[in-house]
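Re-running the complex after MR caught last week's input typo. The corrected sequence lines follow. Everything else is unchanged.
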Amino acid sequence: MTVTAVRKDPEHLTMTLDADFDATPARVWQLWADPRQLERWWGPPTYPATFTKHDLTPGSRVEYHMTGPEGDQPRGFWDIVEVDPPRALIFRDGFANDDGSPNTDLPSNEVRVTIAEAGGRTTMSIKSVFVSAAAMEQVLAMGMEEGLMQAVGQIDAILAEDTVPSG
Amino acid sequence: MVVSMQIAPPDFDRMFGALADATRRDIVRRAIDSEEGVAEVAGHYAMSFAAVQKHIAILERAGLVTKERIGRRKVVRTNLEGLRIARRLLDQYEELWRGRIGRMTALVAGTAEQPEEPDR
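Corrected-run output:
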């Protein structure tokens, strides 16, 4: 595992994760800048991502969808805020409707990627800022179906033990 | 009247909102293994009884503490399950990114498939 540090701050709804790669910053940048590379890691194996529009220019919109085991295709987009290859990328990751337009009912979260050379290796820091816990929950629902289903199952089990009627 | 275990279905915003305050987090920590009533809890803080009572009410609505009447007292207890749910949400997000970074690492390491040879 190349993840070197994780800082979770429930107070500010942020999570910062540092990772270390045996590669150059340019190579790590490629993971973000090349949509075919991006598709190989953005979604979990059970929910592979397909990027249909990809242009890392401030103000532009990246569009993607994921394909689930049942053929379901949740859609998402990135609104590119800042780009400084191969050092920095800031975007808002949001949900899209079936026609690809942003779903404004669902909140987005901001992802700040920082890439730096460190002694022949490369460190990448990912900072996610959520506007609310509900936003976080939504992001989880789309990319981590399995884990979330387990959590929901657990929550259901907890609730079943209590006196609250279901539904 | 039994007031214990009146846990609302998880409301993550409410949960994290409740945790977004140092005093409330301290109350949650304290109430994990103590059997203090509201008045005793209030005694730990340099603020009015009413203010502490308000904090406890916020935690209670978020499902993070329960108040159980024991005799004449209402004992404040941390609802560990509520805390676990909040934590699990953050943990899952961490897992999501750990998965991504694992795949990124595999991609970077699989140089044979890449047009460019990364410097080592």
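None of the earlier attempt is carried over here. The first strand of chain A starts at residue 3 and ends at 9. The helical segments of chain A are 25-33, 35-38, 133-141, 145-161.
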